[in-house]
Amino acid sequence: MTRWIAAVLLVLGAMLVHACEIILPGPGDLVENPATYSANHRYCVVLREYERLPDFTEDTYANATDRDSPHTTITAALYEMNAESHRLISEMKLDAGNFRELLVSDSGSYLIAVKPVVGGFCGRRESEPDDPIVTIYTAGGNRAGGLKAGDVFTDYDIRTLGDHLFSDVDFTLEHDGEGREIVVISVNSGAAMTTRRIDVATARLLDEKREISPSPRVYATAAAGSETLFSRAFAGPLPAFPPMMINARIRGTVGIHVVVSENGDVVETKLSKSIPFGADAAALEAVKHWKFRRSRTMTSGDILFHFADLSEEKWRELMRDAPPEE
């Protein structure tokens, strides 16, 4: 088993190194500044990755490359196109770290800089909720608005999307039924395609922010034979989901045997089922604060705390017969 795990890690490591390699053109290879066109091909934005290279031309990599230190800003040039020529509308300086792709509206009124959610692979910083995901500029180069990753996705979805070396997230510009230009963010979560729409003119999210992936949640049930005790609980705080478990993708069930006094207080606890990475301690701490209706004698039973990935709808269903947390 150890050799098998080592072999898998070796293969995965090789894949990651290969994927992280940056292959630059050779000195004699021809290069040009990348150009992005609006859907109607009337407008175009040229991203001047090679400042020495004129727009809409190509040259060898040796001649086009700026050998100075990397720039923190990069120039985007917006053009109006026609059959035989192009007219420069504006030039704007963009923060090189705040986008990965540019989109141009069919009206030519807006330039949209988008930045996909990424993980901490290849030495790059993983995405955080405060990172920009869509930034909208006017044709004159002024910032018109924008949304952060946390405005569009839940914190756990940001982490989940970043877990993939190549997250399946696409940005497109479309027109909706009301004639608005919208940025459509499409996320392939594996089970289904999910979209989020942003109004370009107002930089407003048109859809409700809701989770894409089931989130780490805890719910409680009675162990077999402890249903009566469980039904007497009127306050049942749940343990926090330990971050170490989330990061390690550890899920499972912790069982706690409790002894309850006549007054309904938990006076004794003992683990009956254990899982690692902090779940046991979290469950033991939470169950100490459970409250039960009074009885004539001391009683005991087992409570199960399940640490799982669940949608909010499913979690509420599973918690239907459990006592309120407060």
Describe the protein.
This protein is an alpha+beta fold and 326 residues long. The protein has 2 domains: 26-205, no CATH class; 215-318, TonB (TolA/TonB C-terminal domain, 2-Layer Sandwich), CATH 3.30.2420.10. The protein has 8 helices and 20 strands. It has helices at residues 2-20, 61-64, 149-152, 155-162, 227-231, 243-248, 279-287, 312-318; strands at residues 30-31, 35-37, 43-47, 59-60, 73-81, 86-95, 101-104, 110-114, 132-138, 143-148, 169-175, 181-188, 193-199, 204-205, 215-222, 233-235, 252-260, 266-273, 291-292, 299-310. The chain has a 4-stranded antiparallel beta sheet with strand order 2-3-5-6, with no helix packed on it. The radius of gyration is 28 Å and the shape is elongated. Mean pLDDT is 88; it is low at 1-18.
Listing every helix as H and every strand as E from the N terminus to the C terminus, the arrangement reads HEEEEHEEEEEEHHEEEEEHEHEEHEEH
Total number of strands: 20
What sort of overall outline do the alpha carbons produce when their principal axes are compared?
A: elongated
State the low-pLDDT regions, or none. Answer: 1-18
Q: Rounded to an integer, what's the Rg over CA atoms?
A: 28 Å
Mean pLDDT: 88
Instruction: Tell me the fraction of residues in β-strands, as a range.
Output: 35-45%
| Strands in their spatial order, largest beta sheet | 2-3-5-6
Major sheet description? 4 strands, antiparallel
Distance from N terminus to C terminus (CA atoms, Å) equals 46 Å
Number of helices: 8
Oligomer state equals: single chain
Number of domains: 2
Amount of helix: 10-25%
**Computed structural class:** alpha+beta
